[in-house]
Amino acid sequence: INERLIEELRAYDGTVSGMFAGAPLLLLTTTGAKSGQPHTTPLTYSRDFSRLVIIAAGQGSATNPDWYHNITANPVVTVEVGGERFQAVARVTEGVERQRLFDQMAAERPNRELLELQNRTERQLPVIVLERVLDKTTDYNAFNRNLIEEFHARGGKVGGIFEELPLLLLTTTGAKSGQPRITPLVYGTDR
C-alpha cells in the first residue's frame, strides 16, 4: 500500500484519494541506519510555523518505526510535500516542546486517533520536527514572514535554528515605497 500511496502523492502534488483523502501527507526519505540506502515513507504531519511535525506512532506498536531509527542515525532527510521537494534536518523533541506539539497534532487528527495510538503502547511516541535546510531554493520572504509570525505569537521567542539566539525585529521604512518593512535579526552585545 505504501508504494501506491507514494506514487499517487508524487503524481498529484500531495493529494490522494481513498482512506487518506484530505489528510496532510508528506513523503520522508531517510538514509538507512544500517544499509545506507534511501527509504521513503508516507506520513501525516502538522505545521508549527515554518517547521513540519511528524510523530513516530508506528500504529501504536511496541517499537519505534524503522524510519525513526534512520533519522536518529542520519538526521538529514528529504521531504516531499505539496509538490515541493527539499532537504531538512530531523530533530526529536523533548519535554514541554514535545508535549505542545503532540497535543497540537492530536487536536488536528480525527476521532482522537493519535491518543488511541499512544494508549496502545507503553513507549512515548516520539515527536519529530523537520527544519528546512536553508539554501538557494528557499523562499526567504516566506521564511521571514513565518519567523515574524512565530516571534509575535510566542512573545518574542522562536524555535528551530534560532531558538538559542537573541532575535529582534527591525522595522524600517522603504526608501522608494515608503512602506514599513520588518526584518528579523540576530544580535549580540559588545562587552
Structure in a nutshell:
The protein has 191 residues and is of the alpha+beta class.
Record the SSE blueprint.
Blueprint: H1 2-11, E1 25-31, E2 38-44, E3 46-48, E4 51-55, H2 66-73, E5 76-81, E6 84-92, H3 95-108, H4 113-119, E7 127-132, H5 140-153, E8 167-173, E9 180-186
Antiparallel strand pairs: 1-2, 1-5, 3-4, 4-7, 5-6, 6-7, 8-9
Structure description:
The mean pLDDT is 85. Strands 2-1-5-6-7-4-3 form a 7-stranded antiparallel beta sheet, with helices on both faces. A two-stranded antiparallel sheet has the order 8-9. The chain is of the alpha+beta class and 191 residues long. 28% of the residues lie in helices and 30% in strands. A hairpin with a 6-residue loop joins strand 1 and strand 2.
User: What Rg do the Cα atoms give?
Assistant: 19 Å
Number-wise, the strands total 9
Q: In percent, how much strand structure appears in the residues?
A: 25-35%
Give the uncertain stretches in residue-range form.
none
| Ends distance | 60 Å
Major sheet strand order? 2-1-5-6-7-4-3
Treating each run of at least 4 consecutive H or I residues as one helix, how many helices? 5
Could you estimate the helical fraction of the residues in percent? 25-40%
Mean pLDDT: 85
Q: Biggest sheet: strands, sense, closure? A: 7 strands, antiparallel
Provide the succession of SSEs.
HEEEEHEEHHEHEE
Shape field: globular
Based on secondary structure, the structural category is alpha+beta
